[in-house]
Every structure is written in structure tokens, then in C-alpha cells.
Amino acid sequence: MRIRPSSSDDLATILIIESLTNKIPWTEQQFLSSAEVGHHSLVIEEKEGVVGFAIYSPIVPESHLLNIAITPSNQGRGLGRQLLQKVILQNQLLGVKSLTLEVRVSNNSAISLYESEGFLKDAIRPDYYSGVVREDALLMSLLIK
């Protein structure tokens, strides 16, 4: 397993992972726009190829985790935790003091992961996620020392 910066060659795989893990997946254009504006992007790779990704936007002293996902067949193996820890470390090296994110209130496994890494529940943003049934977002933050 290795974690590395993503490249344009990873986009097709990232789009597949996104479609498998997100109720309202980002479009190819959203990923391209994210890269164009300078968001940071990492992938986690195993022998069979890329199995996850993370995208974050540091504007020191803050940073925002925009998207993180692991293929369903690889979830529960600690890969998401390793990827999240790498995001936290990279932000720390950039001088970031606070990392924030939104997560669906129904995504208990992600919320548990974030809490276990020190994130705090800050607030609820009502009807944040669109779809047939709108869903609230839990806002979370991590103070980075």
C-alpha cells in the first residue's frame, strides 16, 4: 500500500470510486475544476491499483476536507484511516491549524472514524445534501497541533 499525490491518469478510477461511494457523486467536471483551482488530491494504491482518494483545500491556517472515499470492497481495512492520517499530516506540514469537513448525518462509519482521529462535532447544516430526500450535514473540525 502507498499513498501518493493523484495525477490526471487516476481520474477514471477516481470517478468509478466516487460513483460507488457517493449518493450524489461529483462529476468529471467537478474533479477537473477542483484540480484547476489548486485543491490537493491524494490516492491510496494497492497492488490492484488505486482503491481510494482524498481531496482537500488548504488556505492556511485552515483547510477543508472536500471528499474522501475508499472502494466498497476495501472498506473496513483501515485504508480510510491511513488516508485521513496522511491528509492530517500534510496539512500539519503546510502550517494548517484547523481541518474542517461535512459528513452526512447518516454516515455513522465515517463519523466514527473522524471522531477516533480527534474531530469534534461542531454543528448541523440542515438540508445540505440534495437528492430525492434531502439530508443534513454534520460539521466537524480538528485542531492540528
TrEMBL record:
InterPro entries: AcTrfase_RimI/Ard1, Acyl_CoA_acyltransferase, GNAT_dom, YpeA/RimI_acetyltransf. One of its GO terms (molecular function) is protein-N-terminal-alanine acetyltransferase activity. Its main location: cytoplasm. One of its GO terms (cellular component) is cytoplasm. Keywords: Acyltransferase, Cytoplasm, Transferase. NCBIfam families: rimI (TIGR01575). Acetylates the N-terminal alanine of ribosomal protein bS18. This is [Ribosomal protein bS18]-alanine N-acetyltransferase. It comes from SAR86 cluster bacterium BACL1 MAG-120920-bin57.
